[in-house]
Amino acid sequence: MFLVTPDTGLLVWMVIIFGIVFLILAKYGFPVITRMVEKRSEHIDTSLRLAREAQEKLSALSEEQAALIEKTRKEQEQMLKEASDTREKILAQAREEAREQASMIISKARTEIEAEKQSALRDIRRSVAELSVEVAEKVVRERLSSQEQQIRLAEKLAGEISSSGLRN
Questions:
Q1: In whole angstroms, how far apart are CA 15 and each of 9, 19, 40?
Q2: pTM, full prediction
Q3: Contact in structure between 153 and 144 (CB atoms under 8 Å)
Q4: What are the residues whose beta carbons fall under 8 Å from the beta carbon of 149, sequence distance 6 or more?
Q5: Which residues of 108-130 are buried (b: 16+ CB within 10 A; e: fewer)?
Q6: Which of 25, 102, 110, 137 is deepest in the core (most CB within 10 A)?
Q7: What's the CA gap between 65 and 52, in Å, rounded?
Q8: pLDDT at 146 over 90
């Protein structure tokens, strides 16, 4: 029972020692502990504030990034549209130039064909004229084989020449 119920003297000494330890702790220990807790609390508050600021900056950067992505996408669409328009213009211009060149080639070919046709017609006319002269020469030789026929033809031609000379 001695262990369960302490003596009065023991109790007094325990209270005195507890008071001394409490005073020493109150004078030297509690201020240090309180300062450490306050420092830790300030550090936590500062860390929370910095974390909030970082999160706000991160969200602002995220919004800025989204805006830049959208701007880039619009610029890309604009560039693709301009490239497509330019391609269409170049194709249309190339088609027009090809039509003009084809028209010029066809026109030149027609001119050359017409010139060749005229040349061929002249050659044919010349050949026909030469053949006609040869045939006429043979016919005239055959008809004018006698002296009398030659004189009649000469008189006839002289008459035609003199009558046409009088008219002019």
A1: 10, 6, 33
A2: 0.41
A3: yes
A4: 143
A5: eeeeeeeeeeeeeeeeeeeeeee
A6: 25
A7: 19
A8: no
Residues 6+ apart with CB under 8 A from 23: none
Provide the sign of the torsion angle of the four alpha carbons 136, 140, 141, 142, taken in this order. positive
Q: Coil, helix or strand for 131?
A: helix
Does residue 110 have a pLDDT over 60? yes
CA dihedral 34, 40, 42, 48 (to 10 degrees): -150
Q: What's residue 90's pLDDT?
A: 95
Q: What are the φ and ψ backbone dihedral angles of 4, each rounded to 5 degrees?
A: -85, -40
Cα torsion 112, 116, 117, 118: sign: positive
- Cβ atoms of residues 97 and 91 within 8 Å: no
Mean pLDDT of 3-7: 71
**Which pLDDT score, from 0 to 100, does residue 11 have?**
84
Task: Return the pLDDT at 102.
Answer: 93
Per domain, the residue ranges of the chain are 8-163
> Residue 161 corresponds to which tokens in the numbers above?
């020449």
